[in-house]
Hints:
The structure holds two protein chains of two kinds.
Chain A: E1 2-7, E2 12-20, H1 25-38, E3 41-52, H2 54-67, E4 72-76, H3 80-89, E5 96-97
Parallel strand pairs in A: 2-3, 3-4, 4-5
Antiparallel strand pairs in A: 1-2
Chain B: H1 6-70, H2 80-87, E1 94-99, E2 104-107, H3 121-124, H4 127-130, E3 140-144, E4 154-161, E5 165-171, H5 173-184, E6 192-193, E7 197-202, E8 208-210, H6 228-234, E9 241-245, E10 248-257, E11 260-267, H7 268-320, H8 334-375, E12 389-396, E13 404-410, E14 415-423, H9 427-446, H10 451-463, E15 472-480, E16 485-491, E17 497-499, E18 505-507, E19 527-530, E20 535-540, H11 542-545, H12 556-566, H13 572-587, E21 596-603, E22 608-615, H14 621-634, H15 639-660, E23 667-675, E24 680-687, H16 713-721, E25 724-730, E26 733-741
Amino acid sequence: MNITKQKEADKLILSLDGKLDTLTAPQLDAALKEAFEECDSVEVNLESLAYVSSAGLRVLHATHKRVKGKGKLVISHANGTVLDVFESTGFSSYLTII
Amino acid sequence: MKIQKLSTVFRNKLLKVSAIILLCAILLIFIAVNVVVRLSTTQMLKSQIQQITDGVSYHSETVFNSPNFYLSTKPDNINQEMLEQEFSMFLATNWYYIDQNGEVLFTNDETMREKNASADPELAQFAEYYTGNIREFNSVQVILPKDFQSRNWKKLVICRYGTDSFVVLKYEPEQYYHMLDDFVDSICNFESVGTGGSNLILRQDGKIISPEKGARGELHFQTESLDVTNLLSLSKDKELFLLKLNGTAFYAMYAQADGYYVVSMIPRAEVIGSLTAIMLITAVMVLLLLAVIFIRINHLTKRLIVKNIETVNNGLSEITSGNLDTEINVRDNVEFNQLSDGINATVSSLKGYIQRESERFEQELELARSIQNSAMPNVFPPFPERHDIDIFASMKPAKQVGGDFYDFFFTDDAQLVFLTADVSDKGIPAAMFMMKAKTIIKSLAQSRLSIENVISSANRILCEDNSADMFVTLWIGMLNTETGELAYINAGHCKPLLRRAGGEFDYLPGRADFVVASEEDAPYHSKSLTLKQGDALFLYTDGVTEAVNTDDALFGEEKLKNALNAERAETAGEICARAVAELSSYAQNAAQSDDITMLAVVYHGGVVREKITVDAELAKLEPVFAFIEAQFTQCGFDKDAVMEMGIIADEICSNIVFYAYPEEKGKLTVQFTFNPATEEAALVFIDNGVPFNPLNAPAPNLDNPEERREGGLGIFLVRRYSDRLQYEYTKKQNTLKIIKKRK
């Protein structure tokens, strides 16, 4: 999985490319921790993500809990299978997905 | 000994008893009548004797009283000469003129002349007359001595002669008879006793005086005298005795009468004749009486006993013929009541016993059946991880345990052996032989022999010690599931039905080999054919084609074929179900006479099978994911499906890596198969770690993700993206199978 970091006006955009699974979840975790140190608002762009497994969900869940009240985590451009995972697991109503 | 009917036995016994009673009655009557006859004969003869005796006495008295009349006046001058002339008319042997002093004054007896009468003992008897002590008398007659048989007797007559003298006349027997014979000889003339009997008067020497010769008539015997000595020796006087005279038997009686014997006699035959008539009449009456009794008893016996026994026997026959519900109700009397109750009680307890025994037997058979069933593979689908082959079999035994069997098993990853067989018998012995045959064939097949060798060897082994002379027909196939090549042997078994993909079922032609377990050297020839994708094979035993309906008509091969072709069944289970349904609707309520066994194989062929094995470590998972993605992509699954399978693979593999091997390291195997016929792919994850069934994991709380534990989410996704899931823990292996259908 490739993570591309892009700085915009008031937020940091992390674009994921590939698969977010057990093998790559730690990579996202590290990237998110680093991003929140730079900026309070982080957007994770899933447009190019092939799929996400429960390991990826756990990272997003843990990050969301950690930054709650201090920063803002937004998921964007989830589509296909990825969106289905978020919706079927209930994460779509819990995380901020645009 | 011939066994007779009860009524006959009764009749015979009754006849015997009747005969004995009849004989006794006749005997008793004979004795009674005999006694009566003797008494009455005695009475009759006695009166006859008395009458004759009286007659003789009367004449004797009359004759010997005559001097008394003649001598009433006495002349004055009495001398010897004058007296001699005077007394000569009395014909006496001696005469004595005795005065009142007892002096014999005149006599023709020289020895007594001028002597006293007391000198002669005979004359002395009249001493009291002489002295005048006895005044009134006419005459006195004395016979001396009493025993006149001695011939020494004399008849003495005394009469008064004048006022002062007496005359005594002495008669010797000769003179006596001379005087009297003419008077008594007519007494018995023309008189008979009964019809053939007679009275006789004899002199003491036995000469018959009366009846006179000319007056004896036809009734008398031609004899002049009787033997008096013999007569006296036979009996006392005036008693009945049996006398034989000139060959005729008489009842007779005698008595003495004034120097004579009086005999009265009647022929015995005459008396007995009437006795016989009485006896005959009595016997006939007794006979009639007995006949009435006999008929009555015979009738009663029949009505009270024989008829009832027949009723009981009929009931028993019915019970013996198997109708245990028969009740015997003969209530005429206490004995038959008890008998009926006894039989009914026995039969009902017998019924209970039979029922208990048959229940026990049923239970044992049921047990045997479950043992037999458990010996055959009966979990379907038997090879859930395989998609190249679909197999289903069923057996319905006719008698709880049957001689049929089926079997199927893989000898390696690709070789499937399957067979149906029929042992030539039913029940427990057939089932035991079946177990033996099945075990031998399976163990031979698993040693990788060719199918010909398997059956030849099994045949030889089964021929040894086959004391029950059973044999086995079987159809066995050995299928290479990779190539579809099928080698098979038909040992005297029913021809299977083959359906080519898209076609219809038809019988597989070809000659069958000899049955197994009968001929040690029988040759077996393997035949072969190649199965293509979608081909189906249906094996069965003759219980299918020989099933009968209520009219005893066979189901037959034609109906079986038509039944399977009528409605297209895709899976092996559906093919068997069609055959079973058609059979049961055909047979209706007809009893199943033979085991019904069937086995269907559907070959899917061309199945893709790949697998990958790695160490269960995170770092080694990358090639596994790549393998799965490649396989699904190759088999034409769309991108979404491939992604979904990626999620599933990640969830399951990470789970195995993190939790399966808490201590030592282990392996992870992933196996992929794809069946184009069903368009289903199966992904199987195998590990040797701790048993863990992810299907039992609790569902995550999706409504409130804030609060939920993170576990369970993975398996939720696995469920969501798979079509079916199967988990098994066998041989210390966790096997999780995911099935995904191609869209």
